[in-house]
Amino acid sequence: MAGTSQKYRNFVAEPMGEKSVTELAGIGETLGGRLIEAGFDKAYTVLGQYLILKKDEELFKDWMKEVCNASSKQASDCYNCLNDWCEEFL
Amino acid sequence: MSEIDNLESLSNADLRKQCIKHGLPNVPITDSSRNILIKKLRASLSGSPASQTKKTPRRETIHVAKTTEAAIETKEVKAEPERRTPSRGANRRTFAGTPTFESQKPSENQTSENLTPAPIGARRRSTRDHEIPPSQKEQKSTKTYNPVVILESDEEDQDLLLAAEQVEQRSKSSLAREEANVRSRSSRSVSLSKTGVVTTSFNQPTVHPIAEVPQIPIRRETTESISHEIYKPQISANSGRFSLHSNLMQPNIGIGLNKDRDVPNTLHSRYSTNTLSSGLYSSKATPLYTEQSDDNEEAEGYETPFLSSFARNLERIKTDGVVLNKPSSIGGSDIGREYVSPRPVQPSRRYEISGRRPTKVSVTDSFRQLLIALDRKYNLRLYLVLVTVFLIMAFIFVMVYQ
C-alpha cells in the first residue's frame, strides 16, 4: 500500500453518517459535482451502489468511471475507501 | 450488432439473466448499474470473458508492484555484503537483536513456500495474509499505520528487511554467540546494557505503531514485545557506530541521529561510514530499526541531504540547541540519555542560548526607560496625579449630588 490520504483515513475512521460524497477518498469537487448531478449526493448512496455491485472491484470502478468520469486512480481510491470502510463498519 | 441493440432494450430482469448466462457476477440490475453491466455484457459477448471479475485483492496487486521494487533492492543488498565482507563483525553485532525475527521466522518460511517468486516481497505479503486474517480489524489497523512509514522510508525499509533476513539466516545458529559477542565487545558492555534499558523506555510509548514497519507478522499483541526487542539492536548498533565515530569526531550524535532520520541521507551516511571502514554494515543495517524512531524523534525534517557528516552535524547543532554533543566518555552513546544528560553536562551552551533571550525581553525595559525619560522631561507623573484627582473628585461629586 503506497500510503493513504488523510481523506481516506478520515473516512474510514468513523461511520459515514450523512457525509457528502466529496468526503470519499478520490472524489473531489469535480467528481463530487458529477456524482451529485447523477443523484449520488451522499456518501452512503455511493456505498449503496458499491453494495449493489456486490463489492465487486472491477464493476464498481467501471461504474465510477462511467458515472463521473473518474480516473482509474480516483476510482480505486474510492473503492478502497468504501471497501475498507465496509470491512470496518458493515 | 442486433444483439447489442437488444441489450439496451432488454428489461432489467432479462438483462440480469443474460448476465448470469454469460458468466458475469450475479448483480441486481438497477438504473444506476445497468449501463456498466450492459458494457460488461458486451465485452464478454465480444469475446474476452477473461476480463470479468478477476477477484484479486487490491492489496495483492500493490504488493506485487512492491516485489519488483524489492527485486531491485535485492540486487543492491546482495552486492553490498560482498563489498563489505571485512566488516562482518560489525554486521553481526548490528543484528544481535535478530532473535525477534527468528521467533517469527518459521511462519514466514512456511507461508513463503506458497508463493514461489520474488522472495522477500512475496514473503512479506504472505506473512500479512496468513498472519492477520484472524481478525479484520487488526488488519485494518496495521494498514493505517503502514502508510506512514512506507511513505517515508519504503525503500530503506525493504532494503533493510532484506539485510535483516540475510543476516538472520546467517546467524540463525549462532545467536547466543552473538549475544556474547556484543557483551564482550570491549568495555562498552556496561553502558550498552544501560542504554538498552534507557532507550527502550524512552522510545517505546511513541514508537508502538511504527514498530510494525519491518513487516514482521504484525499483530497488536506481538508488537509490544517486538518493539521492545527491536530497540535493543538499534541501540547496540548505534553505540557501535558511535564508538567508531567518536575517535574521529566529537559531535557524533548528530550523525547517528541524522543518519537514521532522513531517508535520502542514508546514502550519504553510508558513504561517510565507508570512509571509516568499520561501521560499514551497521550504518546500513541500523536504519531498519532506527527508522522507526523517525517520526517521534524527528520534529523537524531533515530533508536536505548533507554533503558531509560534518555539515550534518552543524545543521543538527544549529537546529537542535538542546541536544548537545556529549563527551564520549559518558556512558558511551545511548540515544535515550543523549536527550537527558547533555543539559547538566554542558551548561555553558544553555547559558549562551538563554543569553539571547534577554535582548528580546529588553523591549519592555526600553519602553520603561522611555516612560521614565518622558516623565522626567514633561512631568508626566504630575499630570497623571492631577487627572486621577480630578476623576476622583468628579466621581465623588456625581455620587454625592445624584
Structure overview:
The complex is a heterodimer of chains A (90) and B (402). Chain A is an all-alpha fold. In chain A, helix 1 runs parallel beside helix 5 and helix 4 crosses helix 5. Chain A has helices at residues 6-13, 29-37, 43-52, 57-68, 72-89. Chain B has 402 residues and is mainly α. Chain B has helices at residues 2-9, 12-21, 31-45, 58-83, 88-94, 99-112, 119-131, 136-170, 175-184, 189-207, 220-248, 252-261, 265-276, 280-285, 287-290, 294-297, 309-319, 335-338, 342-345, 347-378, 380-400. In chain B, helix 2 runs parallel beside helix 3 (31-45) and helix 10 (189-207) packs across helix 11. Residues 50-58, 64-153, 182-303 and 322-358 of chain B have low confidence and may be disordered. At the A-B interface, helix 4 and helix 5 of A face helix 3, helix 4 and helix 8 of B.
Derived from helix and strand composition plus strand pairing, the structural class of chain B reads mainly alpha
Question: What's the quaternary structure here?
Answer: heterodimer
- SS strand fraction of chain B: under 5%
pLDDT < 50 runs, ≥5 residues of chain A: none
Q: Biggest interface: chains and residue counts?
A: A-B, 27 and 32 residues
What is the domain tally of chain A? 1
In short:
The complex is a heterodimer of chains A (90) and B (402). Chain A has 90 residues and is mostly helical.
List the helices and strands and how they pair.
The complex is a heterodimer of chains A (90) and B (402).
Chain A: H1 6-13, H2 29-37, H3 43-52, H4 57-68, H5 72-89
Helix pairs in contact in A: 1-5, 4-5
Chain B: H1 2-9, H2 12-21, H3 31-45, H4 58-83, H5 88-94, H6 99-112, H7 119-131, H8 136-170, H9 175-184, H10 189-207, H11 220-248, H12 252-261, H13 265-276, H14 280-285, H15 287-290, H16 294-297, H17 309-319, H18 335-338, H19 342-345, H20 347-378, H21 380-400
